[in-house]
Amino acid sequence: MSTLETERRSTCLPAAVAWLFGAAVGWGAWSLTVWARAYCDAGFDAGGVFQLNFLFPVTGVTAGFVGLASLALGRWMASRAPRAVRAWLPPASVVAVTVLLGWWFFATVGTLDGYPGDSGLCPDSNVPPQWPGWIPA
Q: Cα(16)–Cα(29) distance, rounded to whole angstroms?
């Protein structure tokens, strides 16, 4: 078997890993969102809890498919690139896109700016004080 045939042979392992990584990032962002809302007591009333419970499966599955799409995009972008770029660009695109999506989800859904929180532990931005200042939210 030539190296060209070996190179073109495809397995579903990278796609499965991309989907699982995306789903893990999505559910991680969801759990950060629940933690931030509960800590600041902002949007953690009955309607907010329903919204978060509804978003649990949606977030993980959607982020998984975003991981697959970013893998396909990375493979397409690296299709005519040198071998080293073909090796690192698809997984790098999966990591970058899914982590940015998770950060966006936490920043928009988890920190309800100006929502009246009752705990008194968070500022008006509802960003918990434990959140690192170098990561904008």
A: 20
